[in-house]
Amino acid sequence: MATSAYPEIMHAVRDQEPLIQCLTNGVVMDITANVILAIGASPAMCDTSTEAGDFAQVASGVLINAGTPSNEQYAGMRAAVAGANEAGTPWVLDPVACGGLKERTRFQRSLIADKPHAIRGNASEIIALANLDENAGGGRGVDSADEAEAAIPAARNLAERTGGIVGISGATDIIVSQNRITKITSGHPLMQKVIGTGCSLGAVVAAYLSVGADPHDAVVAAHAHHSAAGAKAAETASAPGSYKLAWVDALYALTAEELDRYAQIEEA
């Protein structure tokens, strides 16, 4: 797909205003909701075990992010996954800090059998989730200890097991499906200084998957929009506080021409 065609998916999100159910961690609920609104979608933080499954059947897309999990939240996430699969709702797994703690790692790996439509994480999380190397211990909390390129074999394995798309976040994002690899170079180092930039990307991916585009192209376009806004924001902000505001504004205002300008997309 030509780089110039990705803005069509960005505009489809804005036109369709998909409803995105975010079962996510308490640290990033606010920024995730604001990011979803900024890209033109609608957020819903419905995560209780008694309601999550029903809501997933009416949502346009679902995010599963067990960053600060509780037993109640684990139950809500399982209910949401079951509801999404029953209704055919695309859902995204963000395996936050996978490999770092045993319980969350077991939970996240167990969801592979439910075949997420997309998985989004940093290199260490993707490597740990695939569980190809029993010595892989994950990153440092939510930070990656590995380069994105090192996670490509693990991403290929996950794509084959789920039939879905795997996004590896890094200085260059890498999107992997069973027959295709795409690289996106964009963003800015200040994104690492703002809480929720990574976790909110999972919700953006869910929104982009919901509008009927080719799934691989949709995940590429989601990463491109997210990171191109990061590059644009750096032109007017030089510290984390002002950068956060500039980034959300850029997500909202990004044009097709700016998406092409700020995000370098290469088929590998």
Layout of helices and strands:
Layout: H1 6-16, E1 19-23, H2 29-38, E2 42-44, H3 52-58, E3 61-65, H4 71-87, E4 91-94, H5 102-110, E5 118-122, H6 123-130, H7 152-162, E6 165-169, E7 172-177, E8 180-185, H8 197-209, H9 215-233, H10 240-253, H11 256-262, E9 264-267
Parallel strand pairs: 1-2, 1-3, 3-4, 4-5, 5-6
Antiparallel strand pairs: 6-7, 7-8, 8-9
What labels describe this entry?
alpha/beta; 268 residues; transferase; Ribokinase-like; 11 helices; single chain
Computed CA radius of gyration, to the nearest angstrom: 17 Å
Helix and strand sequence: HEHEHEHEHEHHEEEHHHHE
List low-pLDDT spans. Answer: none
Please tally the β strands and state the result. 9
Shape: globular
Structural class designation: alpha/beta
- Give the count of helical stretches: 11
Protein name: Hydroxyethylthiazole kinase
Binding site for substrate: 45, 196
EC number: 2.7.1.50
InterPro entries: Hyethyz_kinase, Ribokinase-like
What's this entry about, in short?
The protein has 268 residues and is α/β, with parallel strands linked by helices. It has helices spanning 6-16, 29-38, 52-58, 71-87, 102-110, 123-130, 152-162, 197-209, 215-233, 240-253, 256-262; strands spanning 19-23, 42-44, 61-65, 91-94, 118-122, 165-169, 172-177, 180-185, 264-267. 47% of the residues lie in helices and 16% in strands.
